[in-house]
Model the fold of this input.
Amino acid sequence: MNVNLWNINILGIGFMLVFSAFTAASFMESIVFKDYGKHGITIETGFHSLAVIYGVLGVSNWFAPAIVNKLGSRLSLILSVLPNIGFIFSMYEPYQWSIFLCSTLLGLGGGVLWTANGEVIARNSPGDTKPRNTGIFWSWFNMSALVGNTFLYFQLGNAETISDSNRHTIYLVLGGFSVTGLLSFILLKNTPTPIGDGDFTEEPSPWQPIKDGMRFAVSSNMGLLYGAFIFTGLSLNFWSSVYIVIIGNVFPKRNYLALAGILIGLGQVSSGFIWSVLTYKIGRRGVLLCTTVVCCTAFTLVYLAFPSDAATTQEARAQGVPIIASNIYLSLFVALLLGLGDGGFNVTIYATLGQLWEDSPAPAFAVFKFVQGILATAAFLYCGDLLLPYQLLILGLACVIGCIFFLILDYKCALQSEYEVLPDSAQRANSANNKQFYEELEQPLMQTDP
Done:
């Protein structure tokens, strides 16, 4: 195996291990704290902890390129995983000060982690190998939602609460995943610098990405994408925490939480393939319309099948009465829809940003991550107090508005010929450039995980 393939596989394995731990830990955080109930820890501590993570992450994306440029990608990867390990071990015996300190550090490290990841892939993808290498990385990475939650499913068994001993076992194992992921990054090898690169290249200003991002942020095209950005932030809050809490407050068995996490992960993994294939047939407009229908269907089913206090109750179980009887099979189907819908929006956003700002994509993505992180933070702050129907109403309105503004942008850019809107299916079949572009984006980014 050559150096480039070695590095791509090691990078993918490391991310799979690190995010197997983080995804499972963050999914379970609020319910774990509810069952813990000591040292002032409550279910809202979990929501607020996640608010801190995603808020700090949104800001750290602006400064991460300068840090990676200074430290190098391998050292940046290693150092940025350390807060992840600290965050997971802080839940072994949680205190408020340690939870919020580790959440802040995790948000700071998240921006560096993903920036360094992009640099490793770029440096190890010479010529036309980027689509192949990107696919290898995401194949490894997408296993993370399944590995961590599968472990949780068997560990939790038929327990109706998470005991201290069970919590200790869970976070020791998840912490072990993160440590192993960190150690794997040590195995990354140096990539030879291509001829013509490096020695005579002027070092970029650390402020340049911020300046470019500010310029992009006030452009009319970016303004029309803010609706979609806002929805992905609100959606991130819902599928990554609130929905898991809802299931935990309605159904007695704690391993149902892990099953929901597995189905959400499956939805996100399959969304990359499903929506990318459909893009060739019905275009980005059609994909976003279908995605909007999927999301609104999921929100409607949640409204019908769960009581209004399912996300906010402080009792052992929700006390309200749903419109239709709660059913675990329907709940797991909704989890799958949430993963599909969120993945569809993100695939569309990544494709659009990549074409509109193809010459300088990093600042454009920083704007996206910033808006997404800030809205996720806001949602985590109110979700512990706002009744479920109102949360669903906000999500539904944001989804529809985001879709409408994206369609306006799509038509506007088509008229101005600023970027090529996907032609009909016959022309698309003959468009090699478009095909290669979408192959690179076939796997959805599990975006905003630090």
The radius of gyration is 21 Å. Confidence is low (pLDDT under 50) at residues 195-200, 418-448. DSSP finds 15 helices and no strands in the chain.
